[in-house]
Amino acid sequence: AMIACGNLRDVSLLPRFEALLFPKEGTVAALGVDQVTLATAWAIARTGSPRALPILRRLLSDGTPDVRAIAALGLAQEKDRSAEPRLIATLGAIESGSLARSGAALALGDMHADAAVPELLAAATQGDLELRRAAIEALSRIPSVAPSGKEHKSALPVVIDALFVKTEGSPRTR
């Protein structure tokens, strides 16, 4: 049912979503992860309204890794440039978890965040496989990293090396 609410993209539901995720005492992290929590975060991200931004910013800070990943993608959808520092911090914080870090990486790529390139390069060469994939995908979306880009030409060899590193017994790319 919450997925259907998300598909409505009804901004008038934002206060109800917020009350569900942020009870009077506690944070969304205290709720744990269940399907309703994830679907509610997704519904907020899908509204496509600037009115969802304060809730998404709070979810990025207070949510579980799954919720934080959804919040990051919602912030990117709204092109919330003010969230870039928080997204970069999430990407760089190992304690955020790989899912939240991957969501932050993809969000930064969608936002063409040049300031995130150093952190994305680090994530492309370290961490788990999903995080590396998300960082490489994000880097591919940032125009200044492309071969025609002038600012981050040094990123290309790192991305290429990250793609073509042999894994245990396999010459295939990641």
If you had to describe this structure to a student in words, what would you say it looks like?
The protein has 174 residues and is mainly α. It contains eleven helices and no strands. The radius of gyration is 17 Å and the shape is elongated. The N and C termini lie far apart (37 Å). The relative contact order is 0.09. The model has no long low-confidence stretch (mean pLDDT 83).
Key terms for this structure?
0% strand; mainly alpha; 61% helix; 11 helices; single chain; 174 residues
SSE pattern, N- to C-terminal: HHHHHHHHHHH
The number of strands is 0
Helix content: 55-70%
Structural class: mainly alpha
**Total count of helical runs of at least 4 residues:** 11
Instruction: Note the beta-strand portion.
Output: under 5%
Summed over residues and divided by their number, the pLDDT gives a mean of 83
Q: Detail the poorly predicted runs.
A: none
Overall form = elongated
- Rounded to an integer in angstroms, the radius of gyration calculated over CA atoms is 17 Å
Straight-line distance between termini = 37 Å
Largest sheet: none
